[in-house]
Amino acid sequence: QVQLVESGGGSVQAGGSLRLSCAASGYTLSNVCVTWFRQAPGKEREGVASIDSGGSTSYGATVKGRFTIFRDNAKNTLYLQMNSLSPEDTAMYYCAARLRGTYLPCTVRTTANAYLSWGQGTQVTVSS
Questions:
Q1: How many angstroms separate the CA atoms of 119 and 67, rounded?
Q2: CA-based nearest residue to 71, from 36, 119, 122
Q3: pLDDT score, position 102
Q4: 3-state helix, strand, coil in the chain (%, to 5)
Q5: Which residues lie closer than 8 Å to 114 by C-beta, 6 or more apart?
Q6: Which residues make Cβ contacts (< 8 Å) with residue 104, sequence separation at least 6?
Q7: 76: which of 10, 28, 36, 54 is 20 to 30 A away, CA to CA?
Q8: How far apart are CA 114 and CA 82, in angstroms?
Q9: What is the pLDDT of residue 2?
């Protein structure tokens, strides 16, 4: 059974850090494109950070330099290290994996509906 399970969300003050995890079962994360998305109330789901099977990464403009996406292949787990958090980072964070087609680029610009597998999400709340 293909499954993604996120964890690590919580409440933090501005300037703080959090590390999100996305554990996969049913397939190997290092073989597929995986992206962290987030969605704030009333806003569209946006790509935050992507990593492809070769390890190349892509970041959204608002998080570049503050967030880092990486994998632990032995644990088949994806991470998102988030530093210097601001209230604007408050959102539900999701990991998504497995693009519908190999022709689709593995970047944060690829839309959410291009992914086959989703986790249930983890809430991140940043207070000022």
A1: 19
A2: 36
A3: 84
A4: 5, 50, 45
A5: 99, 100, 101, 104
A6: 33, 110, 114
A7: 10
A8: 24
A9: 81
Torsion, CA 107, CA 110, CA 43, CA 78, rounded to 10: -50
pLDDT averaged per 10 residues in sequence order, the chain, 128 residues: 93 98 94 96 96 96 97 97 98 95 92 95 98
- Find out whether 49 and 67 touch, Cβ atoms under 8 Å: yes
Closest CA to 90 of 120, 57, 48, 30: 48
**Cα–Cα dist 26/50, whole Å:** 20
End-to-end CA distance of the chain: 41
Residue that the structure tokens 């964890």 belong to: 7
Sorted by sequence, the CB contacts under 8 Å of residue 84 that are 6+ apart come out as 15, 17, 66
User: Token pair of 76, please?
Assistant: 């088949």
What pLDDT does 38 receive? 98
pLDDT of residue 126: 98
SS3 label, residue 2 = coil
Specify the pLDDT at position 10: 98
